[in-house]
Amino acid sequence: MSLFGTKRLWRGVHVPEHKEQTAHLPIRRLPFPPLLIVPLSQHAGKPAKAIVREGQEVVRGEPIAEADGFMSVPMHAPATGRVERIAPAPSARGELTTAIYIRAYPGASQEVLYGSDQDITQMTPDQVIAAVQATGVVGLGGAAFPTHVKLKPPQGRTVDTVVVNGCECEPYLTTDHRIMVEYPKQVLHGTRVVMRALGVERAVIGVEDNKPDAIAALLQANADRPDIKIEPVVARYPQGAEKMLVKVLLGREIPSGGLPADVGLAVFNVATLAQIGDLLPTRQGLIERVVTVTGPAVSKPGNYLIPLGTPLRWVLEQAGCTDQAASIILGGPMMGPSVGSFDIPLTKGVTGVLVLPKKDPPTVYPCIHCAACVDVCPLHLDPSHLGLLARKDRYQDMEEIYHLNDCFECACCSYVCPANIPLVQYFRVAKQMNRERKAR
Amino acid sequence: MIEFLMAGAIMGGIGVVLAAVLAFADKKLYVYEDPRIDQVEGLLPKANCGACGCAGCRAFAEKAVAGQIAPGKCTVSSPAGVAAIAELLQIDAGTEEKRVAKLACAGGPHVARHRAQYVGLSTCRGAALVNGGGKGCSWGCLGLGDCERVCSFNAIHMNAHSLPVVNEALCTACGDCVDVCPKQLFSLHAISHRLWIACRSLADGQQAEADCEVACTACGRCAADAPGLIQIVNNLAVIDYSKNSKLTAAPAQRCPTGAIVWFDKEKGPQRGLEAKRITRQSPLPVAEADLPLQSATTTNEGVHHS
Question: Nearest-CA residue of chain B relative to A314?
Answer without folding.
Answer: B291
